[in-house]
Amino acid sequence: MRSTMMFATLVIFASTALAASGGPLQTLKQKNGEVDRLLRVKSEPGSSAEKKQKDEIKSLAGTLLDYTELAKRALGAHWDKLTKAQRDDFVATLKELIERNYVRQLKSNLDYDVQYKNEDVQGAEATVNSVVKVRTEGKSTDVEIVYKLRKAAPTTSPSNDRWMVYDVITDEVSLVRNYRSQFNKIISEKSYDELIKKMKSKLKEGI
Questions:
Q1: Whether the Cβ atoms of residue 168 and residue 148 lie closer than 8 Å to each other
Q2: I need a surface site. Which of 50, 145, 191, 205 has the fewest CB within 10 A?
Q3: Mean pLDDT in each 10-residue stretch from start to end of the chain (207 residues)?
Q4: What is the rounded distance in angstroms from the CA atom of residue 97 to the CA atom of residue 105?
Q5: Domain ranges within the chain, ordered by starting residue
Q6: Which class is domain 3-205?
């Protein structure tokens, strides 16, 4: 995955926490402070405290990123050809790959500010625009981040809307489109079985 896509994925989890009731923009920013504090907690590499911290970060991310919708849109027409068991396996594998990547790199740069601009809600879909100011080696860079969200089924009552992210566009580069290009190339040239095999091999590399 290209570096801009990795940054886009990291920003989802670095700038958000538990999906709260309310609009999509509120969902993205309401508990920013909570996850930011979690990220800045120092723990010894390999310690139980570090493992707990990583598990908590994964749990927070899982409440916001819609892995199933991301996987479905990334596979496109190929999704309809899969059995339920294959779909479940694909979503679980993709989820684990994303988690592995962002947990490894999440603390690489905590010197950033997120500025939310506006939201556009169209029924069960929404777009939130933002700018992330990242400071590295004394230099500041502005990165435009556009979040694509959809309204998930309420967990408690019909009024408890849950907005979840299914795509992130970083400086006009879409996470979903980037995945779709990679997945489609492997499936078209070889097969779906080869794609899932490659994904699982990537996971084994991290063991």
A1: yes
A2: 205
A3: 46 46 77 65 81 79 86 97 98 90 62 85 94 82 91 59 87 94 97 97 80
A4: 13
A5: 3-205
A6: alpha beta
